Amino acid sequence: MRSVPARARLYILCVALGGAACAAPALSARTPWPAVVLLAVLCAGCERTALPHGRTRGLGTFFPVLLAGVFLLPPSAAALVAVPGALLARVDRRPRRVRRLWRAAQLAVASWTAARVYGALGGPAAGAGPDFPYVLGPAGAAVVAFCAVLTVLDGGVLATAERVPLRSAWRGLFARSLAPVAVHGLAGLMMAILWTSPYGPPAALLVLLPMGVSCWVFAQYHRERAAHQATIRALVQAVDLKDKYTRGHSERVGRASVMIARELGMDDERVEVLRFAGILHDVGKLGVPTRLLRKDGPLTQEERRVIELHPEYGHEMVRGIGFLGEARAAILHHHERIDGSGYPYGLAGRQIPECARVVAVADAFDAMTSTRSYRRARPVPAALEELARCAGAQFDPAMVAALTRALDRDGWHPEVTSDVPRRAPEHGADQGGNVPPARAAAPAARGPAAR
Predict the structure, then answer these.
(1) Intra-chain end-to-end CA distance of the chain, in Å
(2) More reliable by pLDDT, 254 or 242
(3) How far is it, in rounded angstroms, from Cα 450 to Cα 442?
(4) Does the predicted TM-score (pTM) go above 0.85?
């Protein structure tokens, strides 16, 4: 747990203790252990074949079995159903043990709460079996309670472990998860009805077949998305190899873009788009002759015009990747300026897409805080001061202010996975096109160096 912030460890520990308190009465009460064991085994099997946790921020758990337990079992027993599956689930991201413990505790608390709501609103007693359609009201309330608890706990872990601002940690979580959880809840209710029917548990298992197929399709979609992301990573690595002095720059720009987007209160989908935009903003350099990117000394006007084509090259390269969305506009316009003196089209003010204005600030910030062969990295306060000086002319003041607030709160951690020990490059010109106007060794009409 060393990589988990102390406040997140405390938060996860509190939730784990809460989950243990919810499940503990089942050990001393008259618990229907055969049903608990069978549901727990089903849940664990579904967890092992589901999409690994940590790969997406979507639903990583097969909820029909859990919610069937909510409708069939006492609250403490319902809390136990989720624990084995969560502790055995496949987890891609580290620390795996902490993530498994967190998921088990979260689902135990959510299941216990949902079962309590279900019973309080007139749901049939454990073992009696739901009476359709009168059970729809209590079951619907239980599903909402289940989703609400997951939302509250997820927002808490985003705020403590991932340092998402409190005002945006919970934004949109409930709305995005309610519909999928409701569908799973309906399947769980059907399982519970069949479970207590004359046909017994074998009939209830039939409900899992169509749900399993739909989850398989969902997993296939995310595998395809992962393949797209691997392609993006390969493009970035190609840029790093061609323009070695910026190794790690793209990943850091993606990170800074995410900080700005979250500070502006953008939803998770747009934050992810901004991350892609930051990572890919310089991919067009693959179309620029390597001799220009590595030239030692100032560029001629003709060479500068060639370099300034890299946003258009990049846009052409990614235009066929549909899920990038507005990130493609950021790649095309991240060298535009608020005063209209940028390139490639000289857009000004609000004509520049919002995502491009975000990436422009992130790009310039990382350029100033990274060491180059001809100068040392500037301290973060000095870089922010320079951004503020250029706000309103080169940069959008709102984006500069958002980055400043995020850095004041969370700090800047420039280490990235692509950083490796290496000698300083031997060329002396700034190839990134990121230095604010006062620092540029370029014609006054164009402002910063185009590279």
Answers:
(1) 42
(2) 254
(3) 8
(4) no
